[in-house]
Amino acid sequence: MKRLLLISLIFIAACGSGSGTSSSSGFAGAALTFQTEKGLSDEWYSWLISRQSYYLEAYNRGRGDRTVRVEISYDSDIAWDSEEEHFAALKTLAELQFPGWSFTFSASDSDADVRAVLGYTGVSSYANLSTDTIYLIYEGIFAHELGHILGLYHHYCGNDVSTPCSESPPDEGKCIMGRSAASWGPTEQFLLNLTGESDEDAILSQMGYIYTNSYP
User: Fold this and answer.
1) Assigned CATH class of 67-214
2) Tens of pLDDT along 127-139?
């Protein structure tokens, strides 16, 4: 009965909004469709809806222009012989991890969406949300830090990824934002509007190729 009422409320809200439907009002209906398609639990749906405002930025980004232009700079030397080959390898990795998105990497781009500092010599990789800049000790964590720029959050509390945490979505399994996989869980697949499933083995192979050439 509660399920039927929820679906009815979503339908009424959608019909009442007319042609000016906002991305926020479409969130619940899109989540319900995704839940049904993926066989996710009602607990997953309730968890996500309770955090709708929290994740609306990522949801909107996934339904806009899914092209990301990245300007690269270096904090320390990277051992690639060819910068062109390096950027091509980064593009391949990014598009494996973000199926349906398109990436460009270059050394100079005044219109870049994101700036990435490679070979970062600080204590840990991180994303500066105020400048849309990510600092990467290793390129393999690019997707995790870009996830923060896009509006995604950790699935763990503090620094201990093994401790149960309310920010871990139900039915999530392993995920980039939980630091437990090289691909996304269903929550991020929905939010970022990813098309198709990521190939974990291909992603790990590409990460290894980049690491071997960057740090021989």
Assistant:
1) alpha beta
2) 999 999 999 999 9
Q: What angle do CA 118, 135, 168 make, to 5 degrees?
A: 125
CA–CA distance, 48 with 27 (Å, rounded to integer): 10
Task: Give every CB contact of residue 152 below 8 A, 6+ residues apart in sequence.
Answer: 55, 58, 177, 188, 191, 192
Can you give the residue ranges of every domain in the chain? 67-214
Residue-wise pLDDT for 98-115, tens only, equals: 999 999 999 999 999 999
**Strands in 33-84 per DSSP E:** 67-74
Q: With beta carbons less than 8 A apart as the criterion, state whether 49 and 28 touch.
A: yes
pLDDT value at position 196? Answer: 82
Q: How remote is the C-alpha of 211 from its chain's centroid?
A: 21
Other beta carbons less than 10 A from residue 31's beta carbon:
22
Q: What angle do CA 45, 50, 54 make, to 5 degrees?
A: 110
- Overall residue count recorded for the chain in this entry: 216
Question: Which pLDDT belongs to residue 199?
Answer: 93
Neighbouring residues of 169: CB distance < 8 A, sequence distance ≥ 6: 44, 47, 48, 155, 185, 186, 187
The model's pLDDT over 144-153, given as tens digits with 9 standing for 90+, comes to 999 999 999 9
